[in-house]
Amino acid sequence: MDKAYAAALWKIVEGGATPKSAVKTLREALAARGRTGLLPRISKAFARLASRAEVKSAVVLKIAREKDEKTSLKEARTLLANESIRPSEVKTSIDENLIGGWRLEGRELLHDVSYKKQLLDIYENVSGR
Amino acid sequence: MDKSIVQKIIKEIEHFVPKTDTEHVGRVTSVGDGVVAIDGLSRAVMGEIVEFEETAGKTLAKGMDPPAGGAGVLYGLILNLEEDEVRATILGDSARVNEGMMVKSTGRILSVPSGDGLLGRVVSALGEPLDGKGPFKKTTMMPVERESYGVIDRKSVSVPLQTGIKAIDSMIPIGRGQRELIIGDRSTGKTTIAIDTIINQKNEPEDKRPICIYVAIGQKESKTARIVAQLMEADAMKYTIVVDAPASAPAALQFLAPYAGVAMGEYFMDKGRDVLVIYDDLSKQATAYRQLSLLLRRPPGREAYPGDIFYLHSRLLERSARLSDEKGGGSLTALPIIETQDGDVATYIPTNVISITDGQIFLDSSLFNKGIRPAIDVGISVSRVGSSAQTKAMKSVAGTLRLVLAQFRELEAFMQFAQDLDKTTAERIESGRRMVEVLKQRNGSPLPIEKQVAVLYAADQKFFADVATARVSEVEKSLIEFLDGQHSKELAEIKNTGVISDKLKTALNRALAEFRLAHRELFAINK
Fold first, then answer.
1. Coil, helix or strand for B402?
2. Which residues of B248-260 are buried (b: 16+ CB within 10 A; e: fewer)?
3. From CA B165, how far away is CA B448, in angstroms rounded?
4. What ipTM does this complex have?
5. pLDDT tens digits for B288-305?
């Protein structure tokens, strides 16, 4: 129930309503149904939706070492352009497990050219896993 | 390290071309009871296979370690496409999946390997080897879900599929391409009939011998192991594939196993071969599908089964066919098994499958308890298309069998109240009793068709009339040995021509008389 109300609130705001008026409409609707007690749970569900949306829209470039940032961004430029992602939208994070290369995650896409991935592919081919 | 391994690694590195494709991904938002909700994957299609990325965030060394709960890549099968998420079932250990895990789209519909390399092997519902004999030699991938052949591509059932069981081959004949349901309570001999049928295919010439696929759904591992051992002992594994989705396997695999089995069979059918697929049993598959559907929050219907439960079985059994000559003339015969509760065939799943199949073999627990085995209730068992596939020889000896048995059952009930019986009635009862004895058969001992015909011919000629009821089986056994040893020419003629000519009748009558003369002591009931 709380998830459905949170999703409805999200849609109202996405539809162009101001957050204040959207919350007011929701409060009135809940009061009319005698369900104002749901508000704290709706708030939590809304926060979850927001964080999920943030994760969904975020684009992260993972690199193994800080010094690889420039070259990785350069290499990823064509890919970013193809997916209509501006370089300024890309957040960079360090993942030492990658060993080298880079990995771009976000907007339902994954482009992995890390050394770890390539070594794992070789290992799988050799071992037949 | 072994030099060959070093060479292999060097070769692999030299020829390695890194994959630079961009993959379409989503993330697990919730996981429980073998079902995951995935955020993203907006371009996924129904029935698509997705891959769980278990190596993310791990070091290379940890990524190379086989994960706890099973080695190999972990896959999921998309079963629900919702407005803002995708629901998939995990084809493996759910404990390997956690919230936030990345899920990759593969763009592939589930398929399983098939081919001669699978013969003699025990495989999972995903086509992975389970028998520890290593990878398969040469296989072709076959889609698990495929549309069945249409009317133009099919032809009528006309070639018999011999089960080796006298009661079935004589009264409920099965043709290649037919779907014959085996139905009955627990422990009434359903699996035995199926296994005997597989074993009996050994008697077929190699070029016409059907490839057998036994699909164990929700069975105990010990039972499947026993069946495999029995098939091995009978030298039947060389033309058999066992697909095992045991009771301990996730519901998704139990639901998929019959489709995997039929997909493997279709490979051989498309090549013009005959195939026999046994689904043991579809009640358990329906239960697994109900579990999955409820977890996927699909609306429950009658007995909490989902609305498409009929389609679950109809689309599976429709894939059985006898193909036209243009399509290679192959066939796929299905023997689905359904377990009833307290002999009730009128419940939801049994009535569904009865209406889909071309007949049913009903096993009665009361007959089983009386010692009549196989415990086939001839009265309600039927084969709707098999009679056109029955050989003339069998037709000629089994024509009146059903009537004789029906009359016997009627009189048997009447006999409990009657004191004095007239001579004709008494004779009918005695003849019925002997016929019941003749039709009894031990498990694991299917009889080739020519021997069945010879025995039933003898019964039709009142050969057993002077034999004590308790000794009918013994006499029958001796008769078969006698015919096998001294009249193999006549048996071969029945097998090759499929007809009992007048000349052959005379020869058989002479053989029966010879046997009678040599074994007078067995025919001494009235003396």
1. helix
2. ebbbbbbbbbbbb
3. 9
4. 0.79
5. 999 999 999 899 999 999
In whole angstroms, give the CA distance from residue B104 to residue B25. 4
What pLDDT score does B89 carry?
Answer: 94
B243 three-state secondary structure: strand
Q: Give the total residue count for chain A.
A: 129
Residues from chain B contacting residue A119 (CB–CB below 8 Å): 60
CA distance A77 to B404: 86
Measure CB to CB from residue B60 to each of A56, A113, A116 and give the nearest one: A116
Cβ–Cβ < 8 Å for B62, B2: no
- Tokens representing A63 are 């690199």
Buried/exposed B380-408: b ≥16 CB within 10 Å, e otherwise: ebbbebbbebbbebbbbbbeebeebbebb
pTM of the entire predicted model: 0.88
Instruction: Choose, from B384, B409, B428, B433, the residue flagged as catalytic.
Output: B384
Longest distance between any two alpha carbons in chain B, whole Å: 94
Whole-number pLDDT of residue B418: 65
Helix axis angle, A2-14 to A19-33, nearest 10°: 150
What is the residue-level pLDDT of chain A in tens, covering all 129 positions?
888 899 889 988 888 889 899 999 899 999 999 988 999 999 999 998 888 888 778 899 999 998 888 888 888 888 888 888 888 888 999 999 999 889 999 888 999 989 998 888 888 877 766
For B433, the enclosing helix (H) or strand (E) is helix B423-439
Under an 8 A CB cutoff, do A97 and B40 touch?
no
Q: Which two tokens stand for residue A112?
A: 């992995």
pLDDT in tens, B311-365: 999 999 999 999 999 999 999 999 999 999 999 999 999 999 999 999 999 999 9
B91 SS3 class: coil
B252/B261 Cα distance (integer angstroms): 15
* Strand A59-63 versus strand A90-94 pairing type: parallel
**CA atoms of B480 and A82, how far apart (whole Å):** 79
Among A57, A84, A95, A110, the strongest candidate for a mutation testing the B interface, having the largest count of B CBs within 10 A, is A110
Nearest to B331 by CA among B260, B272, B391: B272
Going by C-alpha positions, the residue among B82, B83, B88, B54 that lies closest to residue B68 is B54
Q: Which two tokens stand for residue A15?
A: 């539809």
Round to whole Å and give the CA distance between B268 and B44.
31
Chain A residues within an 8 Å CB radius of B43: 108
